[in-house]
Amino acid sequence: MNNKIYTLLLAIGLILLASCEKDTPRYLPYEGYTFTELNENGGDWTPVLLDAGDAIDIDAPDATDSQAYQDELDATKTATVSMTSKQKNAVKYWTNNPTVRWNEIALELIAKYNLIPGPNEDGSYTLPNPSNPEGPPAFPFAHPPYASRALAYMSVAQFDGLISAWHYKYQYNRAAPYQVDESIRYAYEENDIPSYPSDGAVIARASRNILTAMFPLEAEYLQELEEEHLESLINSGGNVQSDITAGVAIGDAVSAMGLSRASTDGMSSAQTPKAVSDSIKQAAYDRFGWAWDNLEIPVRPVGLTPLFSQVTMWSIDDVESVRPIPPPQLDSQEFLDDVELLKDHARNMTDEKRRIANFWQDGLGTYTPPGHWNRIANEFIVEYKLNPLQTARTLAYMNMAIMDGGISCWDAKYYYHYPRPIQLIEGFETIAGTPNFPSYTSGHSVFSAAASEVLAYIFPDEASTVRAWAEEAAISRVYGGIHWSFDATVGTEQGREVAQYTIDRARADGADN
User: Mean pLDDT in the chain?
Assistant: First the structure.
């Protein structure tokens, strides 16, 4: 008997370990690689926030035969041959495509802060406050809308910054240190991309600035990471100090522009007071004759971000223009058929259905559905050996589409205020918790469809694969019992429609020419 109990506990532990391994951000085991393209015209691409690649003024660098440059070159040469083991490990870790590494850091922080604030002793709730990030509760609560926004702003800043860097790289065309002095051994695969300004420095500074604003309690940690990254750029033999200085200047400028937009995008009002939340609910009831009730225990007085729908979108002017069709009436045959469908899934829960529900759950303590698709994107980026500019472009457009999809989804959720299955099916139980917001449409479905469409555009050979994954992510929520099947199917259509606006924008930016 004891052996059976031990075996059962061990099995449960292994399942939980596997789940944690999937949900906890892991750093991809890649090192520097040869880029498939250099994109010499990348400085001519159309940025998202900047007017053009030359919008940030960067002075011409010293010539490679100048004494000032030679002094910098000697410093780089000395650094490359006097590294400690810790510095060598840092060079290996950051690679020649650190855009992926900073994305992984963002996913790590999202998972760390994706924790619902608990109730006070009197049963009331205090919201995380950016003016008092230490709380309690600590700021932020990195739920899916928050995660999508943090990833979008960081990726856009990276992309615009690298367009600017590429512009000046090929305008000034200053060779990398290891090309000027052949005795300097470059830590990665050599390429002909000019070194001034440093693209790595752009990524480091822009990422640190955006993430510090999004996760203020991590300011010291992020500063330490940036310092290590900037030092590794010298130690790798790929840059001299003036390359770094120019790249940091671009990173500061482009992140300031991004954070200026963020300060007025409406996110600060997304989590509403109870009176506003109640008025939204009453309006839906007056309109449709139904309303979602929060069945969490303990019950929270306000659902998650009722006005996220009012946050400024990246590629769509009017969120109502992509609002999906109404869900089925509660006395319709379509609704009654879905009730029976969910009951059937619950009665006949297979190991495969449970695996799918668990794999795509991306709940509390994880990097959320937007983070899951960033992990998928990073794997493709490394597999296809994209350069930093291509990487930033991929992540920027994908995360813009994910955020726009989330805004559109939350518009549908709180406009229709549709009840979840657990509210309308007597005695029904879920295997995936009880989300604190209305049912229609499914956020997982919208996030996943939007992400997969952008990835299908960037990696056409993977189109059928990523679209199938998106559909699996959508049905996972039905298997989990927290969504109706039409939440998933309409949400998938919604995500694809929203993503097309982003893809149209990407097709016009000059990169496909």
Answer: 94
